[in-house]
Amino acid sequence: MLGRTLREVSAALKQGQVTPTELCKKCLSLIKKTKYLNAYITVSEEVALKQAEESERRYKQGQSLGDLDGIPVAVKDNFSTAGIETTCASNMLKGYIPPYNATVVQKLLDQGALLMGKTNLDEFAMGSGSTDGVFGPVKNPWSYSKQHRERRRHDEHDDSHWLIAGGSSGGSAASVAAFTCFAALGSDTGGSTRNPAAHCGLVGFKPSYGLVSRHGLIPLVNSMDVPGIFTRCVDDTAIVLGILAGHDPKDSTTVQDPIKLSRIPSEVDVSGLCIGIPKEYLVPELSSEIRSLWSQAADLFESEGAKVIEVSLPHTSYSIVCYHVLCTSEVASNMARFDGLQYGHRSGIDVSTEAMYAATRQEGFNDVVRERILSGNFFLLKENYENYFVKAQKVRRLILRDFVNVFDSGVDVLLTPTTLTEAVPYLEFIKEDNRTRSAQDDIFTQAVNMAGLPAVSVPVALSNQGLPIGLQLIGRAFCDQQLLTVAKWFEKQVQFPVIQLQDLMDDGSLILENGKLTSVSLTQ
Amino acid sequence: MATSVLRLGIPGRRWALAWIDGGSRHRSGTQPGPTSNRARGQSSVTQLSLRTAQKPRKGEHKWAAVVGLEIHAQICSNSKLFSGAQVCFAAPPNSLVSFFDASLPGTLPVLNRRCVEAAVMTGLALNCHINRKSLFDRKHYFYADLPAGYQITQQRLPIATNGHLTYSIYIRKKQSQVTTKTVRIKQIQLEQDSGKSLHDDLRSQTLIDLNRAEGQLRVDANISVHHPGEPLGVRTEVKNLNSLRFLAKAIDYEIQRQITELENGGEVLNETRSFDYKLGCTVPMRDKEGKQDYRFMPEPNLPPLVLYDATSLPSDADSQQVINIDQLRDTLPELPSATRERLVQQYGMLPEHSFALLNEVGLLEFFQNVIKETRAEPKKVTNWVLNTFLYYLKQQNLAVSESPVTAGALAELLDLLDSKAVSSAAAKQVFEELWKGQGKTAAQIVSEQQLGLMQDREALEQLCQATIDGHPQTVMDVKKRNPKAINKLIGLVRKASLSRADPTLIKEILEKKLSL
Questions:
Q1: SS3 for A411-443, per residue?
Q2: pTM, 2 dp
Q3: Do A124 and A335 contact (CB within 8 A), yes or no?
Q4: Which end of chain A has less Cβ packing within 10 Å, N or C?
Q5: What residues sit in the active site (chain A) (predicted)?
Q6: Which residue of chain B is at minimal alpha-carbon distance from A98?
Q7: Spans of chain A, pLDDT less than 50
Q8: Interface subset of A 246-265, CB within 8 angstroms of B
């Protein structure tokens, strides 16, 4: 049952094949079994069981709230949840219990979803590995998959070779990949949903900026943050997006105009589409496996009658450094509120208010956060503002214009890699510092955030190491529905294999439910 | 906010005072100077500056002072600038605080439409250019009563710019003489208010009230002096002046201090000062961190504020979502200068009387209500409102709204006076009775205290005859054509009538009886 997609399990609930409480208990039991993945910071067992009970009552009375009623979900621990600790994986917010729900959380709850818990991340979502949070790194479930274990090199057969989940929403990705829930919320500022989705073999969706409310999402970069969605298939993402999208009076940056979102048709024709391949995304650091898959994917579209053309996004190479300036500046500003006075950590040092501020922030934030605050404040200084912040804003405009030009020229969707490589072992990952890693890992994803476009990472195939590889599709602003439609077609063609975690599953139900074990269309 | 902003004219008045006070040293002709203005959201800020050119006495240095005011005025709105929490004066501390006001992580600002409208109207009233697009910025500094670590304001592109306000002031001692001045308004900006720190020295702790918007008007004055024709001097900023009297005193003191400093070979430091109202002087503020860098940054959570006018308004615009400047202009109330002009035109009032009527909150409305209900001449109404009514208010330090005498009651009294039912002197007595607020009407008081004018001619003739008989010497003087004598007789008759007789009638009877 747990291996099913959200849509399938929703049908099973409606038909009474399983009750919300049974489903909830199964997920809770799996969360316990997979505790070593460190996917969850807080497991909200009692809340989830109570919600399941209420959902069960609704089903019995024939008053189900819809597709999400009784469905276990998880939420990244940087979304405010009323009555449930929200830490951002930081000492600064340990013990902080928000008095309100983020709009997206509220929308899920209003639909009857069961909140299983709050998932792990890099501290304040600053990172690309989910390794830099105060609660420790997230382990990629694929580290323990049959597919990977069979293929990895023999000298790596001890437990220390586990892989990173990607980040910063690694906990959400791992929670869905390990079947502990059917959908999870991440956040995506520079790729934080798409990157772990690619590494964990999931669909990871970043909506258009302004389509989904940020109210209650503890910000990293307000002008780029969006709530992201993790599911095991594109249809599920469409269901969740349909619930989350829409204007929120509490977030002035959400668009007023209603965006039409409907169920994606089951038969999709891509023959009329124009697919753009940005030449700047072909970088030397790109692994040959991913490069080859990218090329095969382009051929796949072409073979179905789509027009595939090479396009140029000329300012791509400036994007990362521009992102760095804008990101750290907003971070410096957003982190200013954490002063130990009202909520979260407060240092015991009290010789003066200033000393208390300094000690609180020293103790509360990790090095990554403090470094970004320092950089950001430097860029915002009166003497530097024009040379850094204003210039970066101008470059951002040029990057946006690159995309607009390409779409104006008739391209419907861009096809790119999501990551440079498959997931790497933790021990390898931490050889580089957070800043270097983020700059490398965000290379294909952050420009999309600068431009506010919708993008989705679709799992495509397994690498030689038996690890998932995702490709990214980027759409026009607010053409999220069209993007997901193309993604669904693509997903159907590639037939990405289901993760084999039978060691985890007592009943082995997983592989039986949805057991296509090998990729079909795209092979190495 | 409108009320607060209208008070902007008053700093000009103090200039007239400063200029005459400065007769010994810094006499000045007042000139309009560069002016800036910020309107503050939760509270709003206005800044204006005045420049005075000093006219020296022979052999003296010429000094000119330049003054710029940053005026923070609270917008009169039901809820805060960026949150739905209510605004209420003197509410218990932290009782009106939304999650946003407390800067809980993840909360976002939502702009209050009413505050934008108030800012636009203020801009229009101050003849500003209203920016069709304005932006919000974050201004960063750490302070306990600033929970987000930054304040949302409009630093780069404010809602209104480049305005001016023309105002008139009395010239001292000659209250009847009024002169007209202009100040320039640099900008009006919407700005979030910080919280309020309450220092408990006893327990050596600081408590924070995030209700905000406590002070309705707060002024920072920037002051420098220089020799005309030379570059501007180094300025000081006197912070947190919350009364017009102290504002005037602080500026006077600071100009004098700077001149003295410079004339003694010293220098003026660019510093912030505060005004010690007990000692009447400005003192440097302890500025621990030295020069602040506020690290301004665009507020990413608020899209640009776009305003429309009749020509730019999209045809399919949702009226709830757009603000139309032209529509707001139509709803502007009559501005004070126009009201004064109208009063002079409509009632033949002296200009200084029109000022007096507008200088007191509610007085004009009171006046107009009396006019509406009485047959008495406007001139008479003006005199009664400004002399008698206002005098009583001032004596007891009451606002117009607190007056025990309603406009209707005064109108009734003036009707009695107009119909000669009471004499003018008796009317004053009636007014005094009305002021006691015992719920009696003017007519009741007149009848109970027999203050009505004597209508019985025969009785009055008897009273006149008795007075003539009792004062042969005065009668003699009258007959000798002493012009004062007849008035004395009239006075005596009035006294005998207990002020109830009409002097014109008395005069007529007396003249007849004495065959004048």
A1: CCEEEEECCCCCCCEHHHHCCCCHHHHHHHHCC
A2: 0.85
A3: yes
A4: C
A5: 76, 168, 192
A6: B104
A7: 506-521, 523-524
A8: 249-253, 256
